[in-house]
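One example given next:
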Amino acid sequence: MSNFEEFLAEQLKNDEFRREYEELEPHFTIIKAMINAYNSGITKSDLVVETGISPKYISQLENGNANPSIKTLQKLAAAMGKQLKISFI
């Protein structure tokens, strides 16, 4: 386990921190997917062209400052060669 994973595991023991972390988790998931896509050779320009999403909105997604619609997430997933999966646990 990395130092970050150990740190996170310790922080998640705090109820207030855990609630905030869980609230932000969907944003983290989008950001991780975008980072993975960029690491595999997809560029921001590719996402703009493939999705029709503006560069500004792509940046907002990257920074966790957007609340995208399901349709937007579907476009983004398709442009990254993924499918959107939504679950309630």
User: Anything to note?
Assistant: The helical segments are 3-11, 15-39, 44-51, 55-62, 70-79. The chain has a mean pLDDT of 95. The chain has five helices and no strands.
